[in-house]
Specification:
InterPro entries: Diguanylate_Cyclase, GGDEF_dom, Nucleotide_cyclase, Rev_trsase/Diguanyl_cyclase. One of its GO terms (molecular function) is diguanylate cyclase activity. Its cofactor is Mg(2+). Its EC number is 2.7.7.65. There is one protein chain. Helix 2 packs antiparallel against helix 3 and helix 3 runs antiparallel to helix 4. The chain is 68% helix and 8% strand. It is α+β, with helices and mostly antiparallel strands and 391 residues long. It folds into two domains: 194 residues, A middle domain of Talin 1 (Up-down Bundle); 150 residues, Alpha-Beta Plaits (2-Layer Sandwich), CATH 3.30.70. It has a five-stranded mixed sheet with strand order 2-3-1-4-5, sandwiched between helices. Bound molecules: guanosine-5'-triphosphate (GTP). Guanosine-5'-triphosphate binds next to strand 1, helix 6 and helix 7.
Length: 391
């Protein structure tokens, strides 16, 4: 996963965002439709229930009108108009009645399978009573038939219509709930994918880049040792540590006649020499020692808790090891030597790192002047061996 390119990660991110956007739009559309259909179902169920009430009221008002109540006649008429209007809405699949509701097909089927006929008959009887005269034999006949319909068949049928809508609404809501869970699951999976497939590799990459940047800022690219700034910072940290009371030995090491190595064998061979020298220093140092390449062919070492004498011995060993190093394949007759200057930093010696480096540099200069391939200490000559004598 860490090997993914930035472009691949961006594509993944776009796909993940696209999936979430699709899920969001889809659930929004579904929710809108559910709300509309749910509203429709509730309205139809309420209208169907109201039809039952209206049919009962029509039957009751017809009774009272038969007893001579003019007011009942007026109520009968108004209820009948409303009953008929709502019946047209509920029983037809067109115009004003084209409501959206889950149970619509099944409810319409109920109207077709007899309920419609009963309601038409009920309306016909009610109209005859509305336009008739109480006491008329035909009036009494219509009233009897109307009562019979209003008592049983009409309420049963209309209740069936209402419950069809309520039940259909419930079933649909259950389905919506399942769909909602599925959408939620998809969104969570996409988020998991984002976390594992996008953000984790991105964070790893950022951490890697941060390490690389850190390395570039603190390491010398050719040798892998500390650069000058990092060397100084590390030595300062050792010197300023609360437990550090002992001396820190500082060594300045410089390749002899490096310019002529470059001139004679080329810069590539010069680089090989520096790389091998860096690797050698890296190999011989104890943990806690600090090595840096602080100039072109100039290296510095800091050896904490080491006396000047100890550092001189170590420098002498190092000088001999370098002189004994095998020549690079590219330059079999090349003989590399180094000169080293030693100084001490701490109580009784140089008070600052800059001062210690200056003294070590002075000693190094003396080693060069005295013939190279030598170790000189800031205080006294420690390696009186003649140049190249041990090489
Ligand atoms: N190949 C290579 N050469 C470098 C690098 N950095 C510096 N140099 C060369 O190192 C040489 C240093 O030469 P000088 O300072 O005259 O010293 P020297 O020839 O070693 O002479 P002494 O120090 O007196 O023994 C210069 O020619 C630089 O161009 C590097 O990274 N790679």
């Amino acid at each position: 996963m860490t090997g993914l390119s930035s472009r691949a990660l961006t594509y993944r991110y776009i796909v993940a965002l696209g999936l979430i956007a699709v899920c969001t739009v889809f659930s929004h559309l579904i929710l809108g439709r559910v709300l509309r259909e749910d509203d429709g179902s509730a309205a139809v169920a309420a209208m169907s229930t109201r039809q039952i009430v209206l049919s009962e009221r029509i039957a009751q008002m017809a009774d009272e009108y038969a007893d001579g109540s003019a007011q009942a006649h007026a109520v009968l008429h108004a209820s009948l108009v409303r009953f008929e209007k709502e019946y047209r809405i509920l029983s037809r699949d067109e115009g004003e009645s084209s409501f959206i509701a889950y149970g619509k097909p099944r409810a319409l089927a109920l109207y077709r399978d007899g309920l419609g006929q009963n309601i038409e008959r009920f309306i016909g009887l009610a109209q005859r009573i509305d336009g008739g005269v109480p006491g008329d034999p035909q009036f009494a006949e219509s009233l009897r038939a109307l009562r019979a319909l209003a008592r049983k068949r009409l309420p049963d049928g209309l209740e069936a219509v209402a419950s069809v809508h309520v039940r259909a609404g419930e079933v649909h809501l259950q389905r919506m709930e399942i769909l909602q869970h599925i959408i939620l699951g998809v969104v969570l999976l996409v988020l998991l994918f984002e976390a594992l497939g996008i953000f984790r590799p991105m964070i790893r990459r950022i951490v890697r880049y941060a390490r690389q940047l850190q390395d570039l800022a603190t390491r010398d690219v050719l040798t892998g040792l500390c650069n000058r700034r990092e060397f100084q910072a590390r030595v300062a940290a050792v010197r300023d540590a609360p437990v550090s009371t002992t001396e820190v030995a500082v060594l300045m090491l410089d390749v002899d006649h490096f310019k002529s190595i470059n001139d004679r064998y080329g810069h590539a061979v010069g680089d090989v020499v520096l790389t091998r020298l860096g690797a050698h220093l890296h190999g011989v140092l104890r943990s806690g020692d600090i090595a840096g390449r602080i100039g072109g062919e100039e290296f510095a070492l800091a050896l904490p808790a080491t006396t000047r004498d100890g550092a001189v011995k170590m420098a002498e060993r190092l000088r001999k090891e370098v002189a004994a190093m095998a020549a690079p394949d590219e330059a079999p007759d090349l003989h590399v030597t180094v000169s080293i200057g030693v100084a001490a930093l701490g109580p009784g010696a140089a008070p600052t790192l800059d001062e210690a480096l200056r003294r070590a540099d002075e000693a190094l200069y003396r080693a060069k002047r005295n013939g190279r391939n030598r170790v000189e200490s800031a205080e006294e000559t420690s390696s009186p061996a003649p140049a190249l004598a041990d090489g």
